[in-house]
Design goal:
The structure is a single chain. This protein is α/β, with parallel strands linked by helices. It is 31% helix and 25% strand. An eight-stranded mixed β-sheet has the order 3-2-1-4-5-6-7-11, sandwiched between helices. The protein has a three-stranded antiparallel β-sheet with strand order 8-9-10. A hairpin with a 2-residue loop joins strand 9 and strand 10. Helix 1 crosses helix 6. The protein starts with a strand and ends with a strand. It holds the Pfam family Formyl_trans_N. It catalyses: N(1)-(5-phospho-beta-D-ribosyl)glycinamide + (6R)-10-formyltetrahydrofolate = N(2)-formyl-N(1)-(5-phospho-beta-D-ribosyl)glycinamide + (6S)-5,6,7,8-tetrahydrofolate + H(+).
């Protein structure tokens, strides 16, 4: 590619993963940050970085499909090469997701395929797992079910709580997401009907330390 990768992002919360992306000074051009919540902190993070923002409320639409088509249509109009879901907390309609095959990634706080959905830290502790982690995957219609491309891992200690796990894992998330976007921007991570890393199909997710 003879120009910077054009990146859009969607977020529902305070935007800490988005801030980590911006702080990494990646060789990309951020074209839009959108949210389903007008007061999401992520929007202010984007504004502070001089990036255009858009917020739409699901309550203003008759159903989920109409909302998804409107929001993702606005994102598409910004002509991104890559869409990053950085703490976007809504399930996306399958017909809308299909238009983004191989062009959208999501970060999730578990070692997928373990613990899809919510309360991942609690479920990790309840299962007495010895390790926890975060995953970045390509987005498909299955919730947190697309091909996993990279993971970061942390050990679970005997004194860990949901809060301490979340705090320690967030540090790794803030490294993992920028590392994956960088790998896409420089062409090491690509999509050709499936994810390829350095030209080869992935037999397992790439470890953060190998990105």
């Amino acid at each position: 590619m003879d120009r910077p990768l054009r990146v859009a992002a969607l977020a529902s919360g305070r935007g800490s993963n988005l801030a980590a992306l911006f702080a990494a000074h990646l060789p990309v051009e951020y074209v839009l940050v959108g949210s389903d919540k007008a007061k999401a902190g992520a929007l202010q993070v984007a504004r502070d970085a001089g990036i255009p923002t858009v917020a739409m409320s699901p309550k203003d639409f008759p159903d989920r499909v109409a909302f998804d088509r409107a929001l993702f249509g606005t994102v598409a109009a910004a002509k991104p090469d890559l869409l990053v879901l950085a703490g976007y907390m809504r399930i996306i309609d399958a017909s809308v997701v299909a238009d983004w095959e191989g062009r959208a990634i999501n970060i999730h706080p578990s070692l997928l395929p373990k613990y899809q959905g919510l309360h991942t830290h609690r479920r990790c502790l309840e299962a007495c797992d010895s390790e926890h982690g975060a995953s970045v995957h390509f987005v498909t219609a299955e919730l947190d079910g697309g091909p996993v491309v990279a993971q970061a891992r942390i050990a679970v200690g005997p004194s860990d709580t949901e809060a301490t796990l979340a705090e320690r894992l967030l540090v790794e998330e803030h490294k993992l997401l920028p590392a994956v976007v960088r790998a896409i921007a420089d062409g090491r991570l690509t999509w050709r009907g499936e994810p390829l890393f350095q030209g080869a199909p992935l037999s397992a997710p790439v470890d953060l330390n190998q990105l």
